[in-house]
Request: fold
Amino acid sequence: MGAVSAVAFGIADFMGSQSGQRLGALRGLAGMLLVSTVVLTVYGWSTGAIWNAAGPGIWIAALHGILMSYALLLFFHAMTIGPINVVAPIIAAHPVFILLFALATGSRPGTIQFLAMAGIILGVIIVGAVGYVTSHPEKSDVNTKRLNASVLVCALLASVVYAGAIIAAQNAAPLNDEIVTLWLGRLFGLGAVLVVFPVTKERLTLPVRWWPFFCLHGVLDSVGLLFLLRGSGGSYDEVTAVVASTFSVITVVLAWIILGERMTRLQGLGVVLIFACVAVLAFGG
Reply:
């Protein structure tokens, strides 16, 4: 479940970087959330699933949606001003915060699981750190240094907020179900993004030619979250979250193939380490 989630998220986030480059992060995210909200509303209405929402699960799912929308906004913005092979691995390090939360609430994964998750996080750090070094030469002007700092701040904030969104989603799903959690998250997330437009004075205009793109982006992002939630039904939610966090590898590889962003041998070793540890969690953890 975590691996399928990672593939869907990886492609979706690469698409988010491209819509952000051309439309702006805010408009690109609003288009994706609008389409996925409409689709989930129609599906939930036709199946009756949305009527199952009740109790505290509603508010936890709402918190998830608000946190997720702002995490993605920070993430997409960072990818529009900095290299994808730096930004994606930084946000993919969010399982560090999920693991800390899990430990604080009494979860105790086995030794093999701990080692595999540590290997995944190390691989993500290698991919991101090497990408940062190779993309930012030591000698750069003041404006470049400020831009680099902005990229790092946005990516790190996105990572922390993203972790909170995943924790909220994993706690909301058992109280409702995955579809209801997705629907409520998208609904409240869309609202959270729309209130940003008047603040930034940016126009909410979504060109018609982009709607097919938004549809595919919304479907992939929703599928990624759905599989993450369905894979979190066991004893260790954090294991699924760590495996799903490898979406950054997919995003970085797509940037390498399509955009020509450089990938070094050390980054390649980081990718191999990530996939090896995912295999351990999936088949031997």
Observations:
- Residues 12 and 221 are 6 Å apart (CA to CA).
- The radius of gyration is 18 Å.
- The longest helix spans residues 142-172.
